[in-house]
Fold:
Amino acid sequence: MSNATTITAADGVPFVDTVRDFDAPISAVFKAHTDPDLLAKWLGPREAKLNVTKYDATTGGTWHYESGHEDAMFGFHGVFHTVETDALIIMTFEFDGAPNQVGISSTTFEEVDGRTRIVAHEVYPTVEARDMALATGMNYGVVEGYERLDELLAT
Structure:
């Protein structure tokens, strides 16, 4: 079963908030967010390819991946600031095409009514940077990625 994804980007603030429930245990949802092999199977839209080149999901670890199509791949990277198993991931994110525009994301994992709820709060350097990310179809990729994660968790 696929649950609704709620994405909120209020006017005038550089934030994107995402809430999503999964019909799976916290440990499985958390592992899918921290294991590079699993991440490559669900992150982003179906038609995009994801090449994870580095993903050390530990406090102080770094990450880098490329996403897109064979004719146009886009790089993203960052640092894991806090990783608390089955509870919290705080990490920076930066698009290689917009250097020095670093954002920070905080994702919590909690059990709610027998499901796992993730709540992500992303902070962009400016409202304009946030709006540019949204204009690229980020919401579509998030929603479809979570649908793919549902499918992965069902196996």
